[in-house]
């Protein structure tokens, strides 16, 4: 997991491949904030991102997921959330595949959390369990961009 803020991208210690994605004008915080909901993929690129609104809720109501084929970059465009996560590889933990490359853990072992607000981002490599959209004090709307980056281009 790597976390940072889009205003200080150079401080995030991102691998060159991820830095080059987030440094593009078409992936900048300012640009992403102007987009309507939807899926976006730049011509010739294998990575893509989704922009949309979601709602936070109590952590007890949130599922914990991981991926095997894609790295996630989750960027907050508006609002705030807590993402709970684990630093262990969850790839072999009991789970089920809800949809392609979205594995839901049956008995997650989550012992870390990060508070994110506008402009913040966090990455989750394949196997890194994460529980997104946990509320701060009360449920609220959060607008996010979620990048999906194939692991072989990292």
Main β-sheet description: 6 strands, antiparallel
CATH superfamily: YhcH/YjgK/YiaL
**Average of per-residue pLDDT values:** 96
Unreliable spans: none
Give the oligomer, counting copies of the same chain as homo and different chains as hetero: single chain
| The CATH class | Mainly Beta
The tally of structural domains comes to 1
Describe the model.
By secondary structure, this protein is mainly beta. The protein has one domain (2-153): Jelly Rolls (Sandwich). The chain has helices at 16-22, 29-32; strands at residues 2-5, 38-40, 48-55, 65-66, 70-78, 80-89, 95-99, 102-105, 112-117, 120-124, 128-134, 141-150. The strands form three sheets. It has a six-stranded antiparallel β-sheet with strand order 1-10-5-12-3-2, with no helix packed on it. The longest helix has 7 residues, at 16-22. It starts with a strand and ends with a strand. The relative contact order is 0.29.
């Amino acid at each position: 997991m790597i976390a940072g803020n889009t205003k200080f991208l150079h401080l995030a210690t991102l691998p060159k491949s991820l830095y080059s994605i987030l440094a593009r004008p078409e992936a900048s915080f300012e640009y992403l904030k102007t987009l309507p909901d939807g899926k976006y993929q730049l011509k010739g690129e294998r990575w893509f991102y989704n922009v949309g609104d979601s709602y936070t809720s109590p952590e007890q109501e949130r599922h914990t997921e991981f991926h095997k084929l894609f790295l996630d970059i989750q960027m907050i465009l508006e609002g705030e959330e807590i993402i709970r996560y684990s630093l262990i590889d969850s790839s072999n933990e009991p789970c089920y595949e809800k949809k392609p490359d979205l594995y839901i853990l049956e008995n997650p072992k989550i012992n870390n959390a990060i508070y994110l607000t506008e402009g913040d981002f966090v990455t989750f490599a394949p196997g890194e369990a994460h529980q997104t959209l946990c509320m701060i004090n009360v449920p609220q709307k959060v607008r996010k961009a979620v990048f999906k980056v194939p692991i072989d281009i990292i």
